[in-house]
Amino acid sequence: GENVEQHPSTLSVQEGDSAVIKCTYSDSASNYFPWYKQELGKGPQLIIDIRSNVGEKKDQRIAVTLNKTAKHFSLHITETQPEDSAVYFCAAPPWEQLIWGAGTKLIIKP
Amino acid sequence: DAGVIQSPRHEVTEMGQEVTLRCKPISGHNSLFWYRQTMMRGLELLIYFNNNVPIDDSGMPEDRFSAKMPNASFSTLKIQPSEPRDSAVYFCASSPGLAGGEQYFGPGTRLTVT
């Protein structure tokens, strides 16, 4: 079955610096790769996603890159701000359901 | 739309008691997912429905857990009897029902079994 590995489990960066979180997946048939952000006490919320016919997608300070050959995709956050502190999850679908990474706790230091 | 609605938000119960968690998905969404989140195991998919029909329940831990979706606007997750190891945050999510679509999560139910 599909397996998704996410690294690092915790990431601490200085406010204003960039943060990068990486995920690898196993199922070559996967063609949709979302990233979710979970703030304390809330459910995960989609922040950006990418489909397999695209190599990179940007939305203001966040971007996702996809390397289908290597089976990995990454979340990039530039100019980090305090409100970026949260847990971030990557996911990949075998079908409609998603297989989730273990999550990355992002800490923004003032 | 009010988003995905879950109740109760917090539940504290004693071991052996029956627990029922409730979910109202976003109107018009065809798929509904129940997840469990713990520090040890992360975010686990328990079961998912499409058009009120259970499609994949392979994540349901054991027979103590059951889920129903009697209509498009309501679903329940029942644990009977509950055990301390069931303590977790349970999320319900819904999606429009297309492969590769966004899942919209509810606020979760924090369950504590003593």
Can you walk me through this structure?
The complex is a heterodimer of chains A (110) and B (114). By secondary structure, chain A is an all-beta fold. Chain A is globular. Chain A contains no helices and eleven strands. By secondary structure, chain B is mainly beta. In chain B, strand 5 and strand 6 form a beta hairpin. The mean pLDDT of chain B is 93. At the A-B interface, strand 5 and strand 10 of A face strand 5 and strand 9 of B.
Can I get a quick summary?
With 110 residues, chain A is mainly β. Chain A has strands at 4-7, 10-14, 19-25, 32-38, 45-51, 56-59, 62-67, 72-77, 86-92, 99-100, 104-109. In chain B, the strands form 2 sheets. In chain B, strands 2, 4, 5, 6, 9, 10 and 11 form a 7-stranded mixed sheet that branches.
What topology does this entry show?
The complex is a heterodimer of chains A (110) and B (114).
Chain A: E1 4-7, E2 10-14, E3 19-25, E4 32-38, E5 45-51, E6 56-59, E7 62-67, E8 72-77, E9 86-92, E10 99-100, E11 104-109
Chain B: E1 5-7, E2 10-13, E3 19-24, E4 31-38, E5 42-50, E6 53-56, E7 65-71, E8 74-79, E9 88-95, E10 104-105, E11 109-113
Parallel strand pairs in B: 2-11
Antiparallel strand pairs in B: 1-3, 3-8, 4-5, 4-9, 5-6, 7-8, 9-10, 9-11
Give the strand tally of chain A: 11
Low-pLDDT residue spans of chain B? none
- Give the assembly state of these chains: heterodimer
Cα radius of gyration of chain B in angstroms: 13 Å
